[in-house]
Amino acid sequence: MCELFCLSSRLPTRATFSLDSFASHGAPPGGMIDGWGIAFYDGLDVRLHKEPEPAGDSVWFAFIKQQRVVSRLIVSHIRRATMGGISLANTQPFTREFGGRMHVFAHNGNLTGIEARYAAAKHRFRPVGETDSEIAFCRLAERLSPLWNANAIPTLDQRFDIIALFAAELRELGPANFLYADGDALFAHGHRRIQADGTIAPPGLWLLCRECTVDRDGLPRSGATLGGIEAGVTIEGSGEGQAITLLASVPLTSEGWRPLAEGEVIVVKDGRVVHRAADGSMQQGDVVAAI
After folding, report:
1. DSSP secondary structure letters along 212-278
2. 3-290, superfamily in CATH?
3. Which one is catalytic: 2, 6, 138, 209?
4. What is the pLDDT of residues 228-241, one digit of tens each?
5. Would you call 162 helix, strand, or coil by DSSP?
6. Which sequence spans correspond to the domains of the chain?
7. pLDDT > 90: what percent of the chain?
8. What is the pLDDT of residues 42-67, one digit of tens each?
9. Does the active-site annotation cover 2?
10. Residue 143: left (phi > 0), alpha (psi -120 to 50), or beta?
11. For 198, which DSSP code?
């Protein structure tokens, strides 16, 4: 299955990626990578980089690693194709503009029958590629975009209600782990994914919250590994007072990653979890580990 990763921080930080190492946490060594993409938020816009091929031999990806882009919100996706050909149009994350800002979406799973389910309605947003993931994003954008017609940013509750309801609909179609960002906040939905034993079961996403000065040599500290595998992501220090929340398809280090419950939706803003809901019950905040 595909691999998801995102970072939200209170202060701007630099993150560099070794996608082959990152991908190895979620699949057997040598598992095929059919594409990769990273979206770095820069104000209301995003620096979007993606290719429909493995990152290991990519000159373009090597250039991106050297740039060490500063951002407070990053969404990344590694593709293992299940629906749609290997092409740029089918490579995630996907982006759309509405409300004068860029919106980013990445999905892991298979949504059987999604095209037929939403075929009857008239759509402003249309997929460029052939994936179930992009169809899902377009349908979510249809519901969210009216909230952004006014000049003000919609409330978190308004956005959360729409996203949580949509996530429940997607769960009826198949594994529906996704990350959605609008530049103001990040919304994550954990469901099911293929586990190490081959079963499709929860958790679909894992969460790590930190408040500290981030070490310069690893994620989130020098030499951080899981089972001897490097994290694949390096976060540079941003000084005291930093808060960072990370989400990934599988834990990337041996620290205290928390699995999202099946069907849990969380909202992350400025590096902290500010809303979460499981089984339809929304709660404020989350447990944050100070390290």
Report:
1. SPPPTTSSSSTT-EETTEE-SEEE----TT-EEEEEESS--SSS--EEPPTTEEEEEETTEEEEEEE
2. Aminohydrolase, N-terminal nucleophile (Ntn) domain (3.60.20.10)
3. 2
4. 555 566 777 656 67
5. helix
6. 3-290
7. 53
8. 999 999 999 998 766 677 777 777 77
9. yes
10. alpha
11. S
